[in-house]
Amino acid sequence: MKLAVFDFDSTLMDGETIDFLAAPLGLEEKVAAITEMAMEGELDFFESLTTRVALLEGLPKEKVEKICSELPMMPGAKEVVAGLKERGYKVICFSGGFRTATTPASKRLGIDADFSNILHDENGILTGRVGGDMMFGFSKGDMIVRLQNLLGISRENTLVVGDGANDLSMFEHADTRVAFCAKPILKKAATHCVDIKDLREILKIV
Predict the structure, then answer these.
(1) Is the pTM of this model over 0.90?
(2) Where are the alpha helices (DSSP H) in 11-163?
(3) Interval 106-154: pLDDT, tens
(4) What is the sign of the dihedral through the CA atoms of 111, 114, 118 and 123?
């Protein structure tokens, strides 16, 4: 058995979930600027996440679910998951974003499991608070080690794919590290770089 772990935002999905959620509030540019700083490694991930989610306070949960159900997948997303499964991989999604986005997308793409965060709401309205599996810069690295131990999979048989600074911690625990349309900070840590928006390119690497 082999393990493939994908980031979600700007990797499996074409864009940043939180930017889509901020748009109805007229805060897309403000949130996108904070996202950009976090992905470049210029801002602590936990601080950037909690700051951005606080701006979503007042958004109806129903609206969040509708936006998340319509997020655009990256070209080749379905094909890369199917191709990796044919090659004996368990395919997992890690996201510093939200389960309202990763869970339906994972079902559509055939991904085995998703680990992400949960937007807190009261009476169907977002409170601006968040909690979950992927709150910190080290979270993806911490989770991938636990999965490797649980499944008995070595780093030699582990593939990771991401685009930003919060993917660095999982890159430390895999021998095949793909920077996908990535920030310079992640490219430096990668074994392979894919600079076109087509996830099928990863099948050429494995």
Answers:
(1) yes
(2) 17-22, 28-39, 45-54, 61-69, 77-86, 99-109, 139-151
(3) 999 999 999 999 999 999 999 999 999 999 999 999 999 999 999 999 9
(4) positive
User: Residue 181: left if φ>0, alpha if ψ -120 to 50, beta else—which one?
Assistant: left
Cα separation of 195 and 182, whole Å?
8
CA distance 93 to 57: 26
Task: Give the torsion through C-alpha atoms of 38, 42, 47, 52, to 10 deg.
Answer: -40
The CA distance from 118 to 130, in Å, is 6
Active site annotation includes 142: no
- CATH superfamily of the domain spanning 2-205: HAD superfamily/HAD-like (3.40.50.1000)
167 is catalytic: no
What's the residue count for the chain? 206
Report how far residue 69's alpha carbon sits from residue 75's, in angstroms, rounded to the nearest whole number.
17
pLDDT at 201: 97
Cross-strand bridge partners of residue 60: 125
